[in-house]
């Protein structure tokens, strides 16, 4: 089968930073399904894993953490899917990735693809959807079905992939969304997704948030980086919560959090699959929930750009675009 991988961790400008490969097609066992991959999305985690380092792989490494496609075959223990089913999922960072013509994945972290979306539109969603959903509803404890309607959430870095779906999930839960964006293109983008207020995270966020009428916010989601920690602590209400997806070496002073009895949460969407937690199937359930919301017209894809076909050249271009830090929504590579 065809695949795109690498042996050396090189700058993306290097033509050998990704290689076109022919490798053996795997066979599913246990809870695994074999998916014929139709489209993949590129995320910052892909770039982080592939970033230059002094390391050489004996056999090519295949990464990729978003896909949509068709179930080709199933393992003996599979109960959720059958051959021919359309699926979408984000995979497992501890296993070979989705940048391959056929891919093995545990059925418990896979959802049925939204019927109303193309493969490219669906591939844009899983990783960021799982991240935002878990951040809001599992970590911060926001009620998905509206019991916390009227509460406020500040989404820092709202124009990226996680923020783009996060805005929509928060609005569906009835929250008032304050989104940050720093360019006119991303300002327009987050407004189109339903943000109630937009502020610039390159300027004084505390002053801007309070000018918008919020002395404090009920929840804060940091979806870009931890440079904004102090502002988040200043803005969170007493007994509120901050969730972040960024591992950081930057200082995180906790005095302000203690004085407010506020909480901080870490979200890593690969944790369930990596540690084989008993509740792995929750990712199947949440992807199915979001698929229903999409097919009902209440949530839309966050796809912003599609490249085709899936090959080393287009993979390099997708990674280059992510590395600029200027991408909005999601970049998808479609079709082998």
UniProtKB/TrEMBL annotation:
GO cellular component, one term: cytoplasm
Signal peptide (residue range): none
Gene Ontology molecular function terms on file: oxidoreductase activity; RNA binding; zinc ion binding
Chief localisation class: cytoplasm
Keyword annotations of the record: Cytoplasm, Metal-binding, NADP, Oxidoreductase, RNA-binding, Zinc
InterPro entries: ADH-like_N, ADH_Zn_typ-1, ER, GroES-like_sf, NAD(P)-bd_dom_sf, Quin_OxRdtase/zeta-crystal_CS, Zinc-ADH_QOR/CCCR
Family: Belongs to the zinc-containing alcohol dehydrogenase family. Quinone oxidoreductase subfamily.
PANTHER family (alphabetical): QUINONE OXIDOREDUCTASE
Subunit structure comment from the entry: Homotetramer.
Name assigned to this protein: Zinc-type alcohol dehydrogenase-like protein
